[in-house]
From TrEMBL:
This is D-amino-acid oxidase. FAD binds at V172, T192. Its EC number is 1.4.3.3. Keywords: FAD, Flavoprotein, Oxidoreductase, Peroxisome. It comes from Cyphellophora europaea (strain CBS 101466) (Phialophora europaea). One of its GO terms (molecular function) is D-amino-acid oxidase activity. GO terms for biological process: D-amino acid catabolic process. Its cofactor is FAD.
Length: 358
């Protein structure tokens, strides 16, 4: 008996991680997607991500904390032993402003690390805190250069025999017909992110974008930073992360739920840069934003699902489907944990231990 045939729809970080784990279990996998690594399109969220592992983007409660718990060792190992994946360790500092103390947002910052005891953190001494900062914590995390990591995932999949195809589907059931070795795959995994809102057979109206805007600069922050609030509105953020392997430093940002606008807002870009320089003066050696060396401006749409990430099995038009989408801003940091749960569901559906019988 040969290996069972699976089509993964979507080639973002969730689709690629799913395909990689499935291929390691012996399944014959085709990845079929409209967008692939190397593309920069507003429909395709993964290339625009920072991306890092900081426990502030979690939106799916305890389930997501478990996914993050199982993802952290993998990302840590890649940073330690596989530099070709484009992941490196970074000291990380998170601050709570005095004026935010007591707010729900500040409490989220304070509570976040308590759900991630595997991150060893310490309080920043009071004498190191600038005026207006009530408290701060420091820990080591990782930052991912998405321009390297996504192609690296593709390369690992290719090594395991995964086949990649460009495809656009009107209905999720149609994906079963594009497997490279069969015109009727045994199962389809739906990793379409925000596109699950309009994909036939799914049409999940709980999906909505959270618009993020960033400025990518050449200046090195030598660390990652985040702070509990800004004076520029509740949907604006201040964070900094320096990507591995010359990927530049990401300055962000915003968290604009329901906003589909794909074009950078130049006024927001100025506010982002001003907040970043205030948060980390070393970016410009104490000078103004005119001393930032800009690589590009970017906009990405985080795939939020109201009610939490969808990870479940279903039969649609006679096709066995496992859904895994709606990770919002936590796709990278929950990728291996959630995709391992996909593997378990696939094995349940196909009634197999997942390994090819040769």
């Amino acid at each position: 008996m040969g290996s069972q045939n699976i089509v993964v729809v979507g080639a973002g970080v969730i689709g690629l991680t799913t395909a990689l784990l499935l291929s390691r279990e012996g399944y014959s996998v085709t990845v079929a997607a409209k967008h692939m690594p190397g593309d920069y399109d507003i429909e395709y969220a993964s290339p625009w991500a920072g991306a890092n592992y900081v426990p502030l983007m979690t939106v799916s409660g305890d389930r997501a904390h478990e996914w993050e718990k199982h993802t952290w060792p993998v990302l840590r190992n890649l940073a330690q032993s596989h530099p070709e994946a484009g992941i490196h360790f970074q000291p990380t500092r998170i601050f709570v402003r005095t004026k935010d103390v007591g707010s729900a947002k500040a409490q989220k910052f304070i509570d976040a690390l308590g759900h991630h005891p595997w991150l060893t953190w310490k309080n920043i001494p009071e004498h190191e805190l600038r005026p207006g900062i009530q408290s701060g914590v420091e820990f080591e995390s990782v930052c991912i250069n998405t321009a390297i990591y996504l192609p690296w995932l593709v390369s690992q999949c290719l090594r395991n025999g995964v086949v990649f195809k460009r495809a656009v589907f009107d209905h999720v059931g149609d994906a079963a017909s594009v497997h490279h070795a069969s015109n009727s795959a045994d199962l389809v995994v739906n990793c379409t992110g925000l596109s699950a809102r309009k994909l036939g057979g799914v049409e999940d109206q709980a999906m909505t974008p959270i618009r993020g805007q960033v400025v990518v600069v050449r200046n090195d922050a030598h660390a990652m930073y985040s702070i509990s609030g800004t004076d520029d509105g509740s949907d604006e953020l201040a964070y900094i992360m320096t990507r591995a392997a010359g990927g530049g430093t990401i300055l962000g940002g915003c968290y604009q739920e329901g906003n589909w606008d794909s074009q950078p807002d130049p006024n927001l870009a100025v506010r982002i840069m001003e907040r970043a320089v205030a948060l980390c003066p070393n970016l410009t050696k104490g000078k103004g934003i005119e001393h930032l060396s800009i690589i590009r401006h970017g906009v990405g749409l985080r795939p939020l699902r109201r009610g939490g990430t969808r990870l479940e099995k279903e039969i649609i038009r006679g096709v066995r489907v496992v859904h895994c989408y709606g990770h919002a801003g936590a796709g990278y940091q929950s990728s291996y944990g959630s995709c391992q749960e996909v593997i378990s569901l696939v094995q349940q559906v196909l009634k197999t231990d997942g390994r090819a019988h040769l």
